[in-house]
C-alpha cells in the first residue's frame, strides 16, 4: 500500500516537467504530498522554440501545490533562479529531479558541433547547474535538521537512458550526455553522503517524445520500440517517488532501469579481469596472447539498448 502523504512537507524541483516522464513524475510527487516547481521552457524535442504555457497548464492542473518555471535551466543564472523559486514559493527545497533533455541525432561522422553543444548543455550541464545550486541548501537542511534528525529528506534523482549505458546508432551526443549524467550521479552521491542526501540515476523505458523519434535499424529494434518503449511513464514516476521516500534513505549512487512493472539494477564499471607482465614491457605478441586468453571471454558485445531490451515488457 502506498502512503499518499509519504512526502508531505517536502519541496521538489522537476525539470522537463511539461510533458512525458517529467510530467508523470511531477503528478505522482504531488499526489504524495510534495510541493513542486515544474521547470520547462516548452521547447520541441530538438530544443527549438519555446512555449511556457505548456508547463503553466500542467502546474495549474496539479493545483496550488505546484508552480511553473518557464525558463531554460541550461544557464547558471536560470538554474539558480529555479531553485530560488522553490525556496521563495514553498519555503525550501528537498528533492531535485533532473529530467530535461533534447535530442539531435546524427551518425558520429556527421556530427555538428552546434548540435553536440546544445544536447550536452541541456541534458548534462543543466543537471550539473541545478545540482550545484540546490546542494548547498540541502546541506544546510541537514545541519538544521529539516524534517527531523537525522536528515532524511534530501534526494537527487537524475533521469538517464540506457543509450548512455549501451550506446545506440547515431546518438553520440545524447548517449554521451546520459553517460556523463551517470558520472555526475556517482560524484553527487559521494559528495553529499555526509549530509544524508542521496543521489541515484533512473534509466526509463516509456513512451515519450524521445522514443517517437527512434528509427529502428532492424527487426529487433522495431520490436523494442513497439514493446519496451510503449509503456506508460507512470511506472517510472512511481519508482522515482519511491527513491524520494523514507524507505529509500540508504539507497544512493545506484543506477536503475524501469520498464513497466520491471525494475532493473545495473552493474557499474569495475575491473572484471587482469593481466600482468612481471618481466618487463609488453610486446604486441605477449599482449595479443594475454588479452585473447584473459579478456576476450569478458568483452562486452557491441549491441545497442534497443536490442538488449527487445523482449515484451511486463505490463
Summarize it.
With 315 residues, the chain is of the alpha/beta class. The protein has eleven helices and eight strands.
Would you give an account of this structure?
By secondary structure, this protein is of the alpha/beta class. It has one domain: Rossmann fold, CATH 3.40.50. It is built from eleven helices and eight strands. An eight-stranded mixed beta sheet has the order 3-2-1-4-5-6-7-8, with helices on both faces. β1, α1 and β2 form a beta-alpha-beta unit. α1 packs across α9 and α3 packs parallel to α4. The relative contact order is 0.13.
Spatial extent as radius of gyration: 21 Å
Number of helices: 11
Terminal CA distance reads 19 Å
Q: Number of DSSP strands? A: 8
Q: Could you name the CATH topology? A: Rossmann fold
Look at the helices and sheets and give the structural class: alpha/beta
Topology order in helix (H) and strand (E) letters: EHEHEHEHEHHEHHHEEHH
Q: Identify the strand order in the major beta sheet.
A: 3-2-1-4-5-6-7-8
Mean pLDDT: 93
Largest sheet: 8 strands, mixed
Q: Please state the overall shape, judged from the principal axes of the Cα atoms.
A: globular
The low-confidence parts are: none
Q: Please state the second-level CATH architecture.
A: 3-Layer(aba) Sandwich
State the CATH superfamily name.
NAD(P)-binding Rossmann-like Domain
What number of domains? Answer: 1
Helix-residue proportion: 40-55%
The CATH class assignment is Alpha Beta
Strand content: 5-15%
Amino acid at each position: 500500500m502506498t502512503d499518499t502523504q509519504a512526502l508531505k512537507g517536502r519541496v521538489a524541483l522537476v525539470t522537463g516537467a511539461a510533458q512525458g516522464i517529467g510530467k508523470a513524475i511531477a503528478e505522482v510527487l504531488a499526489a504524495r504530498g510534495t510541493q513542486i516547481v515544474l521547470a520547462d521552457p516548452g521547447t520541441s524535442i530538438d530544443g527549438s522554440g519555446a512555449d511556457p504555457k505548456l508547463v503553466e497548464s500542467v502546474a495549474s492542473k496539479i493545483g496550488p501545490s505546484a508552480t511553473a518555471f518557464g525558463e531554460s535551466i541550461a544557464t547558471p543564472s536560470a538554474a539558480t533562479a529555479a531553485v530560488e523559486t522553490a525556496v521563495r514559493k514553498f519555503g525550501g527545497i528537498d528533492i531535485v529531479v533532473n529530467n530535461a533533455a533534447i535530442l539531435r541525432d546524427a551518425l558520429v561522422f556527421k556530427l555538428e558541433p552546434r548540435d553536440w553543444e546544445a544536447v550536452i548543455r541541456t541534458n548534462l550541464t543543466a543537471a550539473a547547474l541545478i545540482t550545484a545550486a540546490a546542494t548547498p541548501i540541502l546541506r544546510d537542511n541537514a545541519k538544521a535538521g529539516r524534517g527531523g534528525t537525522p536528515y532524511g529528506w534530501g534526494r537527487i534523482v537524475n533521469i538517464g537512458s540506457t543509450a548512455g549505458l549501451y550506446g545506440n546508432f547515431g546518438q553520440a551526443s545524447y548517449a554521451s550526455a546520459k553517460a556523463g549524467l551517470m558520472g555526475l550521479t556517482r560524484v553527487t552521491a559521494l559528495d553529499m553522503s555526509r549530509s544524508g542526501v542521496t543521489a541515484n540515476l533512473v534509466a526509463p523505458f516509456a513512451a515519450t517524445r524521445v522514443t517517437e523519434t527512434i528509427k529502428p535499424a532492424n527487426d529487433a529494434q522495431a520490436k523494442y520500440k513497439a514493446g519496451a518503449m510503449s509503456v506508460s511513464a507512470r511506472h517510472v514516476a512511481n519508482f522515482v517517488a519511491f527513491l524520494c521516500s523514507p524507505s529509500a534513505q540508504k539507497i544512493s549512487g545506484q543506477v536503475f532501469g524501469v520498464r513497466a512493472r520491471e525494475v532493473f539494477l545495473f552493474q557499474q564499471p569495475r575491473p572484471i579481469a587482469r593481466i600482468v607482465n612481471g618481466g618487463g614491457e609488453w610486446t604486441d605478441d605477449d599482449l595479443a596472447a594475454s588479452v585473447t586468453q584473459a579478456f576476450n571471454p569478458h568483452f562486452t558485445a557491441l549491441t545497442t539498448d534497443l536490442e538488449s531490451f527487445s523482449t515484451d515488457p511486463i505490463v
